[in-house]
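About this split. The held-out portion is used to measure sequence recovery: a designer receives only the structure tokens and must propose an amino acid at every position. Recovery is the fraction of positions where the proposal matches the reference. Here is one held-out target exactly as it appears in the evaluation file.
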């Protein structure tokens, strides 16, 4: 295998791992923010009325 291909595969693997780590981080932040929301002010929408 050429050296350039190995470097490219390593770079792609790093990008994939970094992206997955960021997604997991933002999912945790989102969950934490959702737990802090005042859910008593959430309005339930009934979107079926227009059909």
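Reference sequence for scoring:
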């Amino acid at each position: 295998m050429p050296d350039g291909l190995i470097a490219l595969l390593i770079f792609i693997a790093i990008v994939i791992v970094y992206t997955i780590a960021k997604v997991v981080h933002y999912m945790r932040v989102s969950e934490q923010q959702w737990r802090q929301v005042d859910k008593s002010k959430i309005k339930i929408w009934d979107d079926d009325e227009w059909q």
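Annotator remark: The helical segments are 3-36.
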